[in-house]
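Collaborator request, handled under Task 6.
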Amino acid sequence: MSDAAPAERHATGEAEQVGPFRIYLGAAPGVGKTYAMLSEGHRRRGRGTDVVAGFVETYGRPHTEELVNGLEVIPRKVVDYRGRRLEEMDLDAILRRRPEVALVDELAHTNVPGSGRHEKRWQDVLDILGAGISVITTVNIQHLESIAGEVEQMTGAKVRERVPDWVVRKADQTELADSSPEQLRRRMLHGNIYPKEKVAQALTHFFRTPNLIALRELALRFVADESDETLLEYLQRHQSQVPWETTERIMVAVTAEPGTDVLLRRAARLAFRIKAELDVVHVIAGDTSPSQDGESIDGLRALAADLGARWHEIDDEDPARALVSFAREHQVTQIVVGSMQSSWWRIVGGGPVLRRVIHEAGAFGIDVLVTAHREPPPDAAPSAAPPERESRA
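Structure tokens returned to the collaborator:
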């Protein structure tokens, strides 16, 4: 029996290792993220953990509301904004209470101006984690910065609330709250997701079956990528003698032209799926000056930071030479470029710059991926998008 005890203790230790940051990820509203978060809160409370509901949005769903019962709820902060009284999470109250675990719904939510320290709820969550409090939260796949543009193209609905990818990837566990498109649409018809007056609009816009299938695929793929990364980390930690291929590196060439943010997000998705590092390179050439396109470039630089990429600016009259030289120096294995970018890039009929990059990179064994040019979608009517909460404006 004494021989079995160490193994039993080891197994128990492995099972009880729960990280401080857990995310329930969903493909769309109504898949059960909040329900899963509350259920997890009850399970931990039943094991003796000090759990509080920092902020829970039930949308009047009876089964979800029932789960709030039995949990300590931190009172919300009431804010006067444009003649309305709105409620927000009280970050300071949570920090004063200092529970072991805080349940915080809707990670992508934008706070009412003047309601607290931060503009975004994910920033509040980082403060809570920084205080040593574990957080269980929820988010839908369309709110991830690298995926939001793809969802806009697919659904025609503007994604206004976004979370930087690096915040979601900080999670110790990311769990999928899943529901089939057919089941979601049935729940919608039964009034279990939106009020009855909004059902017809939702079913013919965001909640169309093709949209839900694609959103579910994006969510499944993201969680699968996260699982692959966790497995690799585990094997590297426990089987350090096994060699691992970790040399894949992606570089994306960006300009100030409209639509470059779409290219950058696509490159970030490619890099994440193959667990590659991502470098973003902006070449300043010819008559282009930083002041000319400063606002666009500043936006791309901020987006690169949100996506966890490294930003580089190079002054060079020869863009092709600059890009290939950078790729060689930084051991880049794949260069991602857009088929139509600024005038120095395409020049005439597709451009000698692009042809030179493909030719010279290929000579050094570097792959070049030329992506199709995609225009950003026009703003959709507000009713086409599924608001996580009632609009503030």
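The cover message to the collaborator said: "Confidence is low (pLDDT under 50) at residues 1-16, 240-246, 380-384. The radius of gyration is 24 Å. Please let us know whether this matches your experimental observations."
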